[in-house]
Every structure is written in structure tokens, then in C-alpha cells.
Known about the structure:
With 205 residues, the protein is α/β, with parallel strands linked by helices.
Amino acid sequence: MLRHRQPDLTVVMDNVNKAHNLSAIIRSCDSVGINEIHAVSYRKSIYTEQNAAAGASKWITMNLYPDIASVYKKLSTCGMQILVAANREGSLDFRDVDYSIPTALVVGAEWDGISEMAIDGATHTITVPMLGMGESLNVSVATAVILFEAQRQRREKGMYHQTRLRPECFDKMLFEFAYPRLSRELREKGTPYPSLDEQGGLLSP
């Protein structure tokens, strides 16, 4: 799983608050190899739901922010293009975008949609074309559709055929996944993690 992780692909949830959508988006992110995502909340109730989802996510790190400007600042330092999913005139078909470059996908709240501030900071707005009577997909469904296009493009370019996590990050995550209780105890004590062998076994006590 760690060998397939894509550190330069992520999702930003702009005030997504329904528990089932949060959980579904997290599962989709994990399935395409995303290991870190971001969530913006402007109400306490939304923060509570997002914080609960973050705590329940075993395989993905979710960072919480009070506003979209904070997360955009972090993404810009990573050199990511910012793609905002928005059903508006001028949006690109989601399949016409290059996801093999560092990419952050921004998706919006269920009722309010994507915020204008999120759109203003976007590299592109993208949309999933609709041919029926519905104007848009559920936010978790739209996220999954777009992410699997990103996975397809990255797979074709061989980006899942090599380990892309930095060695120190790979080793840290491997230890935390293999020894969750021990890693938690060591973090609380401020003790460095011991080394692992090639099979994930402890080399030192």
C-alpha cells in the first residue's frame, strides 16, 4: 500500500459536513493512493464532523483548517495545481486535465457548494458533464469519479510502479501502521521509532 502512495495528489473538502460523504471521500482517497487530505470548516458543527472523520481514518492523515486561504497557502508551497470541482460556465471537462502533475482537487459542501474564495484561488475549475435531468452528482460520487480518472492517468505514466514517498516518510508510516499501539506510546514519550527489517520486524527493542 505504501509503495503505491501518491504524495503529490490530494483532496480539499471545502465545508463538506455529512458523515457519510466524509467517510466515502476518505475511502476513495485511500483507494487511489492518497495519504494526506485537507478539510476546511467555518462552523463548529462542521469542524466536529470533520474531526470525527479524521479520528476514524486509520490509513489517511486529514488536516483541518479554519479557512480556504490557509490550505491554499500550504498547497502553493508544494507547487500543486488547484482544481475546483464546480458546475459553472467555462469549467473544463474533468477528463481534459493533466493529473500526473502535483494536483489538489477541491470539492464543496452539500448545500452551499464550493465557496467563491475557493474558486478565486483555483488553477482551473472542472466539471463532470451531466446528460440527464440532474445538475450535479453527490459530492462523494463526483470526488470518486474524478479521482479514478487521476489514477488512470497516473497508472498509464507508471507512477504507481515506483515508491514515491520519501524514505523517511515511508519508514515512519510503515512503523505506525505495523505497530499502532507502540508508535503511539513512543510518540507520547518523545522516543524515536526503532528501525524495521525488510519484513517489517523490529531490529531493536
